[in-house]
Amino acid sequence: MGIFSRRQTAVIEPPSAVAAGRPGGGASAADASLDPALRALTGHWTIDRPHSRIGFSVRHAMVTTVRGAFTDYDSALYFDGARPSESRAELVIRVAGVDTGVEQRDAHLVGKDFFDARRYPEMRFRSTSTVHEGGESFRMTGDLTIRDTTRSVDLQLDYLGSVMDPFGYERAGFDGTTTIDRRDWGLVYNQRLEAGGSMVSEKVRLQFDISAIRSTAQPL
To answer: Per the database record, which ranges form the Lipid/polyisoprenoid-binding YceI-like domain (predicted)?
Structure first.
């Protein structure tokens, strides 16, 4: 995802010609309707952190929403504009970089009740499949690992467009969302309210506001 970051942290190798010839490796009916501008985006990308946000939101005390973001992560993206099913992504997040705007709350999140950052310093998302749902919408399925527990999640992705920025970087934008139940990853801490309900909702909405820049081939 000067002002624009020049750091390039990522690569995932593109599929081989053999993979493209596998059953299911060809273009689907939805792929055939792809905008030519999407096809031109084929290649390696990395998330430009200063202009992206890996965020989350969760209901607090049943009546309000707390929002936060992870500020320290590395990314590896490969987008195939002709065969989106061959696209893939990997994201490694260092949980100590969580930021909700309140130091005491951040310290609680990285402690043993939640992420336990000393024992489990990273969480990871690695895609397993990508489906073009038509137009500029995609569904990416992947394995999300938190506290050494891995579960499959579906991420809804919408392509926002691409541009050559004033610094000569080719840049593409995507919005992604999914909702998870944190208990599936062992994040079970909570407090019950006298009036009923819980202090922190089990449902967490993850939000990916991605500005990606085209990158050279480097390992994550």
So the answer is: 44-213
Neighbours of 31 (CB within 10 A): 20
Report how far residue 26's alpha carbon sits from residue 86's, in angstroms, rounded to the nearest whole number.
9
Give the Cα separation of 114 and 200 in Å (integer): 12
User: What token pair was written down for 108?
Assistant: 């609680």
Torsion sign over Cα 39, 73, 204, 188: positive
Contacts of 39 (CB under 8 A, 6+ apart): 81, 82
Strand blocks (E) in 71-169: 73-79, 88-94, 98-99, 122-134, 137-146, 149-164
For the segment 95-107, what is each residue's pLDDT rounded down to a tens digit? 999 999 999 999 9
144/180 Cα distance (integer angstroms)? 10
